[in-house]
Amino acid sequence: MTQKTYKLGRLSTVLFITFISVCTSLLITSIVFYFCQDMAISKIGMFAAIVTPLVVAPFPSWYLMGLLMKVSALEKEMRLLASLDSLTGLLNRRAFFNDAEVLLHYAVREQISVSVVGLDLDKFKTINDTYGHSAGDLALKHFTAALKGSCRQSDLIGRLGGEEFALFLPNTSVEEAYTLTQRLHKTLSQSSIKVQDTAIQYTVSIGLLSLVPTRADTIETLLQHVDSSLYQAKNSGRNRTVVYGS
Ligand SMILES: Nc1nc2c(ncn2[C@@H]2O[C@H](COP(=O)(O)OP(=O)(O)OP(=O)(O)O)[C@@H](O)[C@H]2O)c(=O)[nH]1
């Protein structure tokens, strides 16, 4: 919400509340004076009935509206923060599963191909143990940037925990997804992170599954298949992609 629309919304609400206050006050006063029938007093009374709410209503309603708007903006910000991983800014596990489930339902209905990718950094414990936890954090951020550089705007990227990431690629064939993972391997092989003047390189193992989903598929089951391919990638030497069912 821009500052201008925020102020306009606040102003129009205050004007509306003031208008309602004046009308209510006038109505009550009119009813009272209808039974009183004293013209001189009724004129003063009518004047007071209009002026009093005009003076009193805007201030508390302006303050209250500002407070309400701030609370709702904060609520929105908190909801967004609760769905993001604090280190990388990627979707956290819960948000990734929620968003991927929505995209999966859409793919089932439209019968379009999707790809699910599981990624796990190789020998990450060694980076932590050798160069310290902050070097590990740096690698996680570096990897996040590499992922963002390889994915489309419409792809979901999540950090499922530790050094474990996942992608949900809507409308993506196995060839396209495989090309993406090869690009990622290449990016990592050509870059490094710097810790105390030492250039550190790391690699990633990847499991990949592409399919036109059916109603029976869930994100949990698809990620289980992806994990089995990822396990194969780790066991066959790491730094590679294994396609599920190949
Ligand atoms: N720096 C950092 N380390 C983390 C974070 N989350 C988890 N880790 C570490 O990640 C490491 C994961 O180690 P392992 O599960 O043994 O995996 P690995 O060393 O990558 O070995 P392979 O997966 O078999 O290649 C552990 O040492 C965790 O402490 C984090 O947010 N920051």
From TrEMBL:
Instruction: Kindly state which keywords UniProt assigns to this record, in alphabetical order.
Output: Membrane, Transmembrane, Transmembrane helix
List the InterPro entries hit by this protein, alphabetically.
Answer: Diguanylate_Cyclase, GGDEF_dom, Nucleotide_cyclase, Rev_trsase/Diguanyl_cyclase
Per the UniProt record, the lineage of the source organism begins with: Bacteria, Pseudomonadati, Pseudomonadota, Gammaproteobacteria, Alteromonadales
Q: Which residues form a coiled coil?
A: none
Q: State what protein this is by name.
A: diguanylate cyclase
- Known SUPFAM superfamilies for this protein? Nucleotide cyclase
Domain GGDEF, chain residue ranges per copy: 112-246
Residues spanning the membrane: 12-35, 47-69
EC number(s) stated in the UniProt entry for this protein: 2.7.7.65
Looking up Gene3D superfamilies in the UniProt record yields:
3.30.70.270
Its UniProt entry gives the catalysed reaction(s) as: 2 GTP = 3',3'-c-di-GMP + 2 diphosphate
> Pfam families, alphabetically?
GGDEF
